[in-house]
Amino acid sequence: MIAPVCALWKRHRGLCIAFVVTAFITLVFALQFILSVFYWRNPENRNLELKGWMTLGHVAIVYDIPAEELAEELDLRPDSRSRRMMLRQIARIKGISLEELEDEIADALDDYEDEKAERDE
């Protein structure tokens, strides 16, 4: 078993190094994916209290609302940039407190739930 690996190492050293590096990077991404699946499947990580460090995308995932619709409800551009903004940044841009922004988000979630219920009927 060792002899073929040594022969491969002697003949194709660069290729072996590239393979090991690629395998390591693949393992890192696989581990990151598995950990994120376990995080989001845990019910304790759903319906969290809103915090200033949360991004708009995080809130959208936690409360199961499309990020674009949440951004529209908050009068933001529904692009990927606004999805990555933290709630405290959004509050600062809008010139309101974090509590007022949380109230706006709660209203947006209520509106979305009402629309969703109407569509399902």
UniProtKB/TrEMBL annotation:
The keyword Membrane applies. The chain crosses the membrane at residues 17-40. Keywords: Membrane, Transmembrane, Transmembrane helix. It comes from the Bacteria. This is Uncharacterized protein. It comes from Martelella lutilitoris.
